[in-house]
Amino acid sequence: MVGQPFTLTVTGQVMGTPHYMAPEQLRGTHDVDHRADIYSLGVVFYEMLTGELPLGKFAPPSRKVQVDVRLDEVVLRALESEPQRRYQQASEVKSEVETITSSSSRPGHAATSPQSLTAEEKELIETARRQVRRSAIALTVVGCLAPALAVAAIIFGSLTSTLGHVMLRAWLGYLLIDSVLGLFLVVSAGRMRALESYWLALVGPILAVFPCLSPFYVLRLPIGLWALVVLTKASVRAGFKQVERLAEAPIRRLSSADPASAPLAPVPPTQQFPLILGCAIGMVLGGLSMAAGVALAVYAFLSVPSGSGEFWGWLGGAFGCFFGGAGSLIGSWNSYRQVTGVGDLLRLPHRTWLDYLLWAYTLSGAGLLTAALVALFLRRAVTPTVYALLLFSGIVLLQGVLFLVFRKLNAAAKKG
Hints:
Elements: H1 23-27, H2 35-50, H3 61-64, H4 70-78, H5 90-104, H6 119-160, H7 166-194, H8 198-209, H9 217-231, H10 234-247, H11 269-303, H12 309-339, H13 353-379, H14 384-415
Helix pairs in contact: 2-4, 4-5, 6-7, 6-9, 6-10, 6-13, 7-8, 7-11, 7-13, 8-9, 11-12, 12-14, 13-14
């Protein structure tokens, strides 16, 4: 190196982050100029709008999120593979973005918010909601039957000291297991009424019509068929698609972009595999833990005297396994969403299936707590059953309230 001028780089050396580098930079050619920076700006712009990198054959931003379609031309032109077809100056990008944002804010311009939907789009959504409303309400009612009767059976058994009766134990065990199916029906009904998560909305009606030995099946079958017929209507499917498009994301303005509220960027593909493997392991372990919880509950109801300390000890283990496993399963799924850049369920500004699940969990705790307090008031004695119900319901209610508060704070931070 003696006698050669010192420089930070040399000809032919490639520097930069690969996903943000222009094609001519990756090729290591000598004709790299400022237009490579415009390509990098296009990558950042695309990532800000969609939360994803423009890798391979990618769709325009408006196909992935709710943004002004005019931004597609700006982004795609900045991402042209040939430098001469891109913007030649960064000021051109700035001028076009300012023109789009200023015209979008003027009265009468068709923006991309729900308030500025066309009359046809509003009518499409309202028609779909009218069509699903009654069947969704019916599905909610039939889904709540088993949990309501289970609470009533617990109160009745506590008041009459018949929880140890074989028939009542078997009936109560069946109701608690059947309540899990009822929870799916309630969640699916909530998705129907919100016109969100079409495939999740289908789960409830499908489970309702699935043959099973249940006294509620005579009610579930016709209601499930009714809901399936409604959900397969073309107008209802179109309503789901329209709401999904509107809920994906609001327009992100470059002039007021906040990194804290920007969409999550996916983890680079080279780093995804160990993270996705960890998420998969978490989901599998969560499912196995839930299955173990159900097995413990069945054993307690079939083999241990009801109302005894041993009985509630087994149910306590079942409770911990089932809901701990559910937490692992849902948390791992949410982590997978973040790794792949889809988004954090706890930070989304609109309602998701997780919100309905959290509310169902919290209300279940409130119902059990009410049953325990009624039994305590009428019997005026803290029996093992009353003590266990107070403990379980208090834990569920406290967890549910904390989850809802945490969800609310995260959603508020996202909007802010």
